[in-house]
Structure formats: structure tokens, C-alpha cells
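Build the 3D complex.
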Amino acid sequence: DGGITQSPKYLFRKEGQNVTLSCEQNLNHDAMYWYRQDPGQGLRLIYYSQIVNDFQKGDIAEGYSVSREKKESFPLTVTSAQKNPTAFYLCASSIDSGNTIYFGEGSWLTVV
Amino acid sequence: AQSVAQPEDQVNVAEGNPLTVKCTYSVSGNPYLFWYVQYPNRGLQFLLKYITGDNLVKGSYGFEAEFNKSQTSFHLKKPSALVSDSALYFCAVGPGGFKTIFGAGTRLFVKA
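Done.
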């Protein structure tokens, strides 16, 4: 089945640690995105990539980093510089940067 | 600048009754409009979109949305609500990709 796979579903981070959330898509989409959703809140764009080997900061990029070495993969690293990382993280993709966005199932990150 | 508003934080409806979830938008030019649904602990699922053409757009799970240019609205509707429709609904305005702006979401409760 075609889709967007995020892993892990639940992740716990200790203070001072970097953690990486995985996102893989087999939809052959050029564009990929990372959003953050806080409980009861809307979506905020962290980073996006319109094509392989290129990515751009979104509205809340501080404390996060990404890479786009393969078309199918867009991992998000939450660094220790992100002071309030506890949230639900959503990966998404679209055929191109001007089209309908489709989402993965999300990953919960909690600081312990 | 584009913007989207969902004026109701929560909508309550009895099972079997029609439901409406409201959305208004502000764009320059022709709007691309989207509706997504999010069930607890899940990613957003695409329901439908309006780009051009018929003002009544049909989507997944029996949902439809009515585009009204004069009122700058794109309300989501369903003739007969199900308990399983209870979820968080997001309206979004395009043109798609990283330029998509999501509303704050409306929580729908369908009571048996």
C-alpha cells in the first residue's frame, strides 16, 4: 500500500538528548513536510523540502534539523536546543510543492 | 495574505441529524480550499478539496462542502451524522504544499 510511514509512534527524550523521528513515503512525492501539533492546537510548519537535497525552514524551525538525501525519506531531528519538544509530530508529503498534502500517522515525543 | 478561520471550537450534534462545520477564508485570487479530519492519536486524513467548478464538493465518508464565494465560506456538511464522525476537523486554504494554511480545528461530538 502506498503511504507515509512515521516511526516510532511514541518516543521519550531525556533532557539534553537529540532524537530523530523517521518519515518514509512510497508515493513518489517530491515535496515533504514536518508539522508540530500541540494538544488542542492547530498545526505549525517546522521544515519543508520541495525536492531531494533541498529543504527550507518553516515557521518554527529553531531547535530542529532535517535532511533530504533520498526522495522517500525526510527525517526530523529534535535537538537539545528545542526547549519544549513535547508534542505530536506529523510528517506529510505532496506530489509537488503546490498540491494537496497527505499526512502520516504521527509520532508522539515526550520529554522525561 | 491568506487566512482561514473556524469560528467554532466545538460542534455538538445528535446521531442521525445533519451536521455543519464552519470555515471562512480570506485570499487574494481564487482559493484552493481543503478539509481534513483527525481521529485521536492519528494523522490528518484528507476529506475533500475545492479548486474550481461546482460549488458543492463531495468527499470521503459521505461528507460534502459548499463553496460560497460571496460569503467567503467553505462549510463542511453531512446529511446524517454518525457517532464515528466524532473527531477534530481542519479547514485549510491553499494554493497547496508549504503555502497551505490550516485553521485551528473544530471538535465535532456526535451523541448517540
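The radius of gyration of chain B is 13 Å.
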